[in-house]
Amino acid sequence: FCCRGLKETMCQPYERYLQEILIDSESLQQRVIELAGMINKDYAETRKLLLVCILKGGVIFLADLVRHLTVPHSIDFMAISSYGNATVSSGVVAILKDLERDITGRHILIVEDIIDTGHTLAYLTENLRLRAPASVRICTLLSKPSRRKVDLKIDYIGFEIPNEFVVGYGLDYDGKYRNLPDVSILGDDCQGGSK
Ligand code: IMP
Ligand code: MG
């Protein structure tokens, strides 16, 4: 019934559509602590740090990350839609929800779930830079370097992963699977369907 590699205790009906666990929850937690350590060090002297979480995929990562931050900071959220079908990014981006406050003079750290082609973050960093912040950096949990279409400087990367469609720990397929504690590869038979 369950797919290979998935813990039976975690088995929910839809987990049968997952192929295998790529990064388990313990590894994710460990890496989040390491990333938070780097951020604490790099921003130790910084005031006015604002973490900008990209909805919805970034929320689980953000929630875990901030609990290991010791540097003073605020959080805010943006929601973005990239047109195109669910598994291929088109590079056309629209802002669905903008930041609550002005970011002039603030140090911005974007918190994102995954960078694939890089189109979304290229658009976003440019958009934020036009608002005259003190700095803009990027922290992404996952990156698929083999898929990159635009040159993008990423300051913090949790894991580089192969060109597979993954779900869990905030990442979705068709709005689902965000709650899963591990990052798993979605089965091929799901990607064309509506599982
Ligand atoms: P990019 O603009 O191509 O870098 O796409 C980034 C966005 O595509 C991410 O924020 C995700 O919403 C989505 N995405 C890309 N790859 C995956 C994946 O493997 N699983 C889930 N969402 C993904
Ligand atoms: Mg995203």
**Hetero ligands:** inosinic acid, magnesium ion
Overall residue-averaged pLDDT value: 89
The Rg value, from CA coordinates, equals 17 Å
Q: What order do the strands of the largest sheet run in, or round the barrel if closed? A: 4-3-2-5-6-7
**How does the helix and strand content classify structurally?**
alpha/beta
Q: Please outline the major beta sheet.
A: 6 strands, mixed
- Unreliable segments (pLDDT under 50, ≥5 consecutive)? none
Beta-strand segment tally: 9
- Note the run of SSEs as H and E: EHEHEEEHEEEEH
DSSP helical segment count: 4
Can you tell me the overall shape? globular
* Assembly level: single chain
As a percent range, the share of helical residues equals 10-25%
What fraction of the residues are assigned to beta strands by DSSP?
Answer: 25-35%
Tell me the distance between the termini.
Answer: 15 Å
